[in-house]
Amino acid sequence: MADSARRSISLEELASHNKPGDLWISIQGKVYDVSEWIRDHPGGDLPLRSLAGQDATDAFVAYHPGVAWQYLDKYFNGYYLQGYTVSEASKDYRKLLSEFAKMGLFDKKGHITLVSMCFIAVLFVISVLGVLWSESKWVHLLCGGMMGFLWIQSGWMGHDSGHYQIMSRPGFNRFAQVLTGNCLAGISIAWWKRNHNAHHIACNSLDFDPDLQHMPFFVVSSKFFGSLTSYYYDRKMNFDAVSRFLVSNQHWTFYPVMCFARINLFAQSFALLLSNKKVPNRGQEILGLLAFWIWYPLLVSCLPNWGERMMFVIASFSVTGIQHVQFCLNHFASSVYIGPPSGNDWFGKQTAGTLDIQCSPWMDWFHGGLQFQIEHHLFPRLPRCHLRKISPFVKELCKKHNLPYNSASFWKANAMTIGTLRAAALQARDLANPIPKNLVWEAVNTHG
């Protein structure tokens, strides 16, 4: 059919369809009405809400396997996007993704899942037996640390299983998710997927990315001083006197707070499951969390006194705090922006908002794939065993299109993160100038 005979819609008209009950997106120039599909979308409602009213092709190909294309036609509303063009960066990105698919990289998952589950089982058995059979407080302290390390490993599995199928069948995949996430770690996999999908789609958007919304404890930009509205939590993030005090000291409190950041994940899990939001398999999720809150307190109660019980809990929380720090390193010191993600520069926003961690191959187990954060954000369905392999191709693509590819050592990334927190803390302390002096510079240099 000739373009002139098609029903077409302009970018401006498409942008007007971005409200609840009226959500349209464009994929490769065809316009789809996803207003009803949003209720059943496996990735949740937030990605569709964030990208509604614009072209979402890059995000679609990043998060969906080839078989997903066959389901699009039922949502096609008959319109085509006027003047639809594809940037050279997007063309090369989609070509690279297609090459990885032809190589079978998305299907070859290696043995990470088997090794991780065996490792988790060993850590669990040793930790429990150490508590039950030993009378040494030092053994109990070590067991608490091992429990924290178990939670780190379960976190990597939960992260992987939220992006792609880590088991041979969907049912087995779901079992692994609930077992390692809800039952063993006390974290709802439904909450994790909802939160993490929102983060990936709106990477480093101050008002759309929940992974940057830690008021009143932390802010990474002075823009939070204007009390931004969170489109993830549907509330205003007030920068009040309490927030100012906590933020003013955030570069000192960062690591101590990370030692107990897991408490927030516990609270967020229950908050979602007890809310009126649609949660798939809510019953399974709640039962999994109840299982954790039975076995973990019971295990702690087996210790001989309250001193050792507190020591065990603090050790387990502090060790798993390493993982919470790792989550922050990849984004806190990277470029940020205000507003929803933009489909026409999705590739660039992902690279600008992420930081790779330089490490030797023998340390890959420690980072769980997050050391290749840029690669992971561009190809989220790719098993982590292939991220090091594709890294040179991603570097070359970024260099070709003059896009950032930032990386730093683990220690340098920590220094950069603390530097970002310190800069915002010093601005928050300026009581005479509640709006920082460099806010204009930030506004000019922020896009979105």
Give the gist of this structure.
The protein has 448 residues and is of the alpha/beta class. 54% of the residues lie in helices and 7% in strands. The protein has two domains: 3-85, Cytochrome b5-like heme/steroid binding domain (Flavocytochrome B2, Chain A, domain 1, Roll); 87-448, no CATH class.
Model description:
Keywords: Heme, Iron, Lipid metabolism, Membrane, Metal-binding, Oxidoreductase, Transmembrane, Transmembrane helix. This is Acyl-lipid (9-3)-desaturase-like. Belongs to the fatty acid desaturase type 1 family. This protein has 448 residues and is an alpha/beta fold. The chain has two domains: 3-85, Flavocytochrome B2, Chain A, domain 1; 87-448, no CATH class. The protein contains 19 helices and nine strands. The strands form three sheets. The protein has a five-stranded mixed β-sheet with strand order 1-5-4-3-2. Strand 6 (229-230) and strand 7 (235-236) form a beta hairpin. The longest helix is centred in the middle third of the chain and has 27 residues, at 137-163. The radius of gyration is 23 Å and the shape is globular. The two termini are 36 Å apart. Residues 435-448 have low confidence and may be disordered.
The overall strand count is 9
Helix percent band: 40-55%
What is the molecular shape?
globular
Strands side by side in the biggest sheet: 1-5-4-3-2
Pfam family, one: FA_desaturase
Pathway: Lipid metabolism
Main location: membrane
GO biological process, one term: lipid metabolic process
